[in-house]
TrEMBL record:
It comes from the Bacteria. This is Lipoprotein.
Length: 131
């Protein structure tokens, strides 16, 4: 009976250690976190990196957009900010500047990368083009 418990325990540990976080399709890369778009055509993968800035936030963000075949569509880094899906074919890249003036709003810090056209525009322009 003890032998069965030991085999079971080792099997469970092996399965846990081999488990990778995936959502939908499988993405094999060095990134800590990958999120698929709604149609599961592209994955947005991110990982923390050391920032080039000398301030209170020593961590930056490295990102890649991968297709189903793990081909890199776009990659980049953000020292202060975030990267996330805006819709099925676009990601928003938020870069927070060191100095913010009173006449700026949050959309002034956001650019949108459109996968289909391989272009980057301001979020304001992107939202206006959707109307």
């Amino acid at each position: 009976m003890n032998r069965i418990r030991i085999v079971f325990f080792i099997s469970v540990l092996t399965l846990i250690s081999c488990n990778k976080k995936t959502t939908g399709n499988s993405v094999s890369n060095e990134y800590a976190d990958c999120d698929w778009n709604a149609s599961k055509n592209y994955a947005l993968c991110t990982s923390e990196i050391e920032s080039n800035l000398k301030d209170n936030n020593p961590k930056g963000l490295e990102y890649k957009i991968l297709d189903k075949n793990n081909n890199v569509i776009k990659q980049g880094t953000v020292d202060r900010g975030s990267v996330s899906w805006l819709d099925d074919g676009a990601i928003q890249i938020t870069r927070i500047p060191g100095n913010i003036s009173e006449d700026m709003d949050k959309d002034d810090f956001v650019e949108v990368y459109k996968i289909s056209s391989d272009s980057t525009i301001s979020k304001k322009a992107y939202l206006e083009s959707k109307n």
